[in-house]
Structures are given as C-alpha cells and as structure tokens.
Structure to design on (213 residues):
C-alpha cells in the first residue's frame, strides 16, 4: 500500500476477487484467513458490499458475488468491443468471412462484436447479441476447450452446421485475460474450413487478448 491508495477499498476489491474465484462462496472465517485480517474487518467489508448489492450472503452465511456486479459488467462489453475491433477487422478482411468476438454470459455464448468483410460477394449474416449454447458452435466449443485445459490440440475449434445449415465456424479462445472468458472466430458458408483459417483465428485471438491486458 502507498500513501495514495485506500486500504479499505483494496480489501473490498480483494474480497470481490476471492468470491469471484469460487462457485460455492466463502465464510467470514475463510475470508479472514485469506485476507489476513480479523473477522470484524471482514464483517464490515461484507456489510458495505451488501449495501451496494455487490455481495450477498446465503442462509448458511456464505458470501457470494451479488447481482450488482452484473450492472457493472454490462458496461464492460462496449470497452471490450472497442479493443477487439481492429483485430476483428483485419481477420474478416484477410479471411473474407464474418469475424466475431464471443464472451461467456451465464451458460451461453454471446457475440459482443461482429465485423463483416467488405470485398466478398456474400458472407454469413451474424449479428452482435446473437446467443447460443456453449456446447454448440466453434465459439463456444473453443471456450469450453480452454476451460478443460486442452492445450495439446491445434488451439482452435472447427464446426460445421451446428448453428446454421451450410455454415462452418472456426474459433480460438482468449487466453490470459483476467476476468474474461471468450473466443475469437469466423463463420463462413463452406463445407470445410481452409487449413490456414485455424492458425489465423489463433493469431487474432492473441491480438485481442493483448489489447485487453
């Protein structure tokens, strides 16, 4: 800590990060141990965060991230979209296919940025806001592969006809971006993905990840 920073705010943010990293919540004792502060401090932090709906406590007293975080999170999408657009434009023009950035939203994959190529006679219409299950489509499958730590494969997912008849997709996960699960990919009207497309979406995903760090 320095003279310009707030110890209380720092602890509150650390509480949120700890809660965000667990699915089952944490008790006051567990938070006290991980933060290295006494239980009274933790109670005060939780009470303040609860007032802003950033934390909730269940019947058993375990603290979890509150719904107020979602309101803050909605403002993240425009920032992420802006950072990703240069890489998506380059990808779309290079491959001649619709490029997209997809993020996890609950149990679904949500397209938050889409760029269509300018020089092709036709391409797949794919819109920002489009949702689909994580286990269908290249974008979701790439994200799930990253969750499972499948790092020995090609680094990208390929699918055909899972979301739209006649359309194929290729996507690579965003890696190393704290707090964001997502993928970058393309969708095209073809029965098979050209060999160079998979490595190219991996490159684009890395460019987007670098822009978000």
């Amino acid at each position: 800590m320095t003279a310009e920073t707030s110890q209380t705010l720092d602890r509150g943010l650390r509480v949120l990060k700890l809660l965000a990293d667990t699915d089952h919540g944490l008790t006051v004792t567990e938070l006290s141990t991980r933060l290295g502060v006494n239980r009274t401090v933790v109670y005060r932090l939780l009470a303040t965060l609860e007032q802003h709906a950033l934390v909730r406590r269940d019947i058993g007293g375990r603290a979890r991230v509150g719904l107020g975080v979602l309101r803050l999170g909605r403002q993240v999408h425009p920032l992420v979209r802006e950072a990703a657009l240069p890489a998506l434009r380059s990808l779309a023009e290079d491959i001649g296919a619709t490029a997209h950035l997809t993020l996890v939203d609950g149990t679904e994959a949500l397209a938050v940025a889409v760029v269509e190529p300018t020089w092709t006679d036709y391409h797949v219409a794919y819109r920002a806001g489009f949702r689909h299950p994580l286990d269908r489509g290249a974008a979701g499958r790439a994200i799930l592969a990253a969750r499972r730590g499948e790092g020995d494969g090609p680094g990208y997912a390929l699918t055909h006809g899972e979301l739209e008849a006649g359309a194929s997709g290729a996507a690579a996960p965003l890696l190393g971006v704290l707090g964001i699960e997502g993928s970058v990919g393309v969708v095209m009207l073809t029965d098979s993905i050209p060999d160079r497309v998979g490595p190219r979406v991996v490159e684009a995903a890395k460019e987007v990840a670098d822009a978000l760090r």
Q: What stands out?
A: Helices lie at 7-20, 28-35, 39-51, 68-73, 76-95, 138-147, 197-212. The longest strand covers residues 98-105. The first helix runs from residue 7 to 20. The mean pLDDT is 91.
